[in-house]
Amino acid sequence: MGTNGSETTALERAENLRALALGCLDEMKAEETIAIDLAGKTSLADTMIITSGRSQRHVGAIADRIIQDMKDKGFGTARVEGLPACDWVLIDAGDVLVHIFRPEVRGFYNLEKMWGADRPVGRMAG
Fold this sequence. Notes:
Elements: H1 10-27, E1 31-37, E2 47-52, H2 56-72, E3 79-81, E4 88-92, E5 96-101, H3 103-109, H4 111-114
Parallel strand pairs: 2-5
Antiparallel strand pairs: 1-2, 3-4, 4-5
């Protein structure tokens, strides 16, 4: 029933990656962060994290930090889209997808509604 060695299971790896990303977002003062559990709903990933940065510079800094921390902690190189514009950066780390938006761009795309999750602080896009 599995190994008792130093190997981590896919589930442990996914949870460690999720925790790393959420920790980075907290440290970088990302705003309105939500994590959506996708396990069993799609083969895209187990977790989708959606968050906001205050500006393009903040979005870029958050993305750079997550990417660097993933490399430093042995998770390899994630696929990244949206740099250098930094309106919406997607970090695809396999088990975890991280979407980092500027607030007005996040409101326009409203991924939370698409994936059936409510935003922590609701604002109607108009």
